[in-house]
Design goal:
The chain contains 7 helices and 9 strands. It has one domain: P-loop containing nucleotide triphosphate hydrolases (Rossmann fold), CATH 3.40.50.300. A 7-stranded mixed beta sheet has the order 5-6-4-7-8-3-9, sandwiched between helices.
Length: 222
């Protein structure tokens, strides 16, 4: 009798020495359930856009960036490329070009490229510029054309309606007096977190350089 009872107890002991719970007289014993473990929490990474600057002492920083923008649009992203001082095609917002169905290429509606600095007085009153009324009229149209493409770009930036925005010669437009530095800086500070912005051109104000997450400076070999 002693031998059979010991054998019975040995047969009920689980492998590894775990605890058995009795379900009552004559009921088979089962291992106690292990406590449920909670899955580890994982933070979902949020997209973070960058403000990049590509600058050079010569006008050569745009080509590589435009190639990148075109490739990005080809992969399905929404892209806006704005060239503030390039004219000659009389585009304007209504006549902007579309590439790959997702890249909008915008230039001001001016008959030629903008190179001359704007006199401080003319920024407030184009008719105050010295010269003929025709020259004053051309200047007023130029100011309006640059303001139009900036207003459109600014709206797209603040609304986050694109994934990548390239602003070519933005710094030079500020230096020549066609755009207000304070307004441009304040707008870029309000950009959506997921939006990538690339500034290109030969001139970059110190305030924009300080805001940049990445700066690429091109130079010619001596």
């Amino acid at each position: 009798m002693t031998t059979s009872l010991a054998s019975h107890r040995q047969s009920l002991r689980p492998a590894g020495g775990g605890r058995l719970e009795s379900a009552g007289h004559g009921a088979p014993a089962h291992p106690a359930p292990m406590p449920a473990t909670q899955p580890a929490l994982r933070l979902v990474p949020q997209p973070e856009g960058l403000l990049q600057i590509h600058t050079a002492p010569f006008r050569g920083s745009f080509a590589a960036v435009f190639s990148q923008a075109l490739r990005t649009a080809g992969l399905g992203s929404r892209v806006l490329v704005t060239q503030f001082l390039k004219g000659g095609v009389e585009q304007g917002v209504a006549g902007s070009l579309w590439l790959c169905g997702r890249l909008e290429w915008l230039r001001p509606a001016t008959p030629q490229c903008i190179e001359a600095p704007l006199a401080p007085a003319a920024a407030h009153d184009p008719l105050a510029v010295e010269g003929s009324l025709a020259a004053a009229s051309d200047l007023a149209q130029t100011l309006e054309a640059v303001a139009e493409v900036w207003a459109y770009s600014r709206t797209c930036l603040l609304e986050g309606s694109v994934d990548l925005m390239v602003l070519d010669e933005l710094g030079l437009a500020i230096e020549l007096g066609y755009l207000a530095a304070d307004e441009v800086t304040a707008t870029l500070e309000q950009r959506p977190a997921q939006l990538d912005v690339i500034l290109t051109g030969p001139s970059m104000p110190a305030a924009l350089m300080a805001m940049a997450d990445q700066v690429t400076q091109l130079r010619r070999a001596p």
